[in-house]
Write a structure and sequence with these properties.
This protein has 144 residues and is an alpha+beta fold. The chain has one domain: Alpha-D-Glucose-1,6-Bisphosphate, Chain A, domain 4. It contains three helices and seven strands, in the order βααββββββα. The chain has a seven-stranded antiparallel beta sheet. A hairpin with a 3-residue loop joins strand 5 and strand 6. The model has no long low-confidence stretch (mean pLDDT 88).
């Protein structure tokens, strides 16, 4: 399993930062590791809202279907993707901070099966690099 965690300071209010990040179809706007994002369900955001994200990973385009699994606006959104090869859990919390908000982004990625277990030593290094790039993009997006 690979893990990544970062705290991003934002000039946005907690409510605005939450609205921007929880609309996960917009992830390609700030995460350079994502080629595209689409919302798959209609209606207001909440538990069960689904998104299709196409990630760039080791030179490949990897579609991941995420769903909101925990939702407590404007302080928490958790998104989970399960495919045959990958399980990803992204937990994002939002708290008030001086001049805006603090956004804590935690991501856990696990490759499934025999190939996944064999790749775990390399996965952590690659995932850390991907996470740092995403954190830089999120920092820019949350500080317009």
């Amino acid at each position: 399993m690979a893990k990544f965690a970062v705290t991003v300071q934002s000039s946005m209010s907690v409510e605005d930062a939450f609205a921007h990040v929880a609309a996960f179809e917009r992830v390609a706007e700030w995460d350079p590791g994502v080629a595209e994002g689409h919302r798959l369900t209609a209606g207001p955001l909440g538990i069960g809202t689904r998104f299709r994200i196409v990630a760039r990973f080791l030179g490949r385009r990897v579609p991941l279907d995420y769903r909101i699994t925990r939702f407590d606006p404007p302080s928490l959104v958790e998104l989970t993707a399960d495919s045959g090869a990958v399980r990803s859990v992204d937990e994002i919390t939002f708290t008030p901070a001086a001049n805006g908000s603090a956004v804590i982004y935690r991501a856990d990625l696990r490759l499934q099966g025999m190939v996944g277990r064999a790749a775990e030593p390399v996965l952590g290094v690659v995932f850390d690099r991907i996470g740092r790039r995403a954190a830089a993009g999120l920092r820019r997006a949350l500080n317009p």
